[in-house]
Amino acid sequence: MNQLAFVFGLLGNVVSFMVFLAPIPTFYQIFKKKSTEGFQSVPYVVGLFSAMLWIYYAFLKPETTLLITINSVGCFVQSAYICFYLFFATKNARVQTVKLILLLNAVGFGMIIVLTHFWASDSNRDDVVGWICLVFSLCVFVAPLGVVRQVIRTKSVEYMPFLLSFVLTLSAVMWFFYGLLRKDYNIAIPNGLGFMFGVIQMVLYVMYKNPKKVVQEKKQKLPDIETQIIVIDENKIPELKEQIIDVMKLGGASVGIIPLVPIHVDNHILGVGKAISCPV
What we know:
Number of strands: 0
Order of helices and strands: HHHHHHHHH
Number of helices: 9
Structural class: mainly alpha
């Protein structure tokens, strides 16, 4: 293996491992609340599928030890996240997660193995699996576009942490050069796209990290309301008795507006979604 490619692959392993640890704060919150409410399992199931797919691809290619190591770690970490999620999830969330695992990681991955084994020849099997990995990785890297649109629309980077965007971009750079130096474009192309999206996210962060209020709320001057006396015809309207109205106590607090945000997983903007982390 090219020594420079090995260096980039090794650095890619280190950075990708850091990306895998990004969801820890999320699961700490789940542990504290003893509930998965507000969080989804999709990013972890997809992350597990991605790691499984790249391991399969790596076994079909020579000298891909670095791909196997980091994605093996990815399989272990994502599986641990999923088990943790299932432990605290509600019955409905647990059922949905199990269905997704069976559909994607069991049936989907199984069909890929069977079809590529019987329909693809030994000489081009790695190319077929590589194209599948490439297309899937492109979908993963395109997912954060929803977050980019949200940032532009709201002019706020509240839901796009700079550190996470930077680490994901750094990971994409490492794997891009690893694939480029090995002339493995199934790795280089999606990570090149990931690098571009990462740069866009960081530029947006610099632009909107200290947003100025573009639209200032104008104080609405309420017209003076004079006392109005309503004369009620006692003959037409029966006398009103005391009415007891149950009112929700606001405790003097003003009502805030809860912003609609895209699915936030593991501080990755996939997605979701976590932008979903994909090591290669």
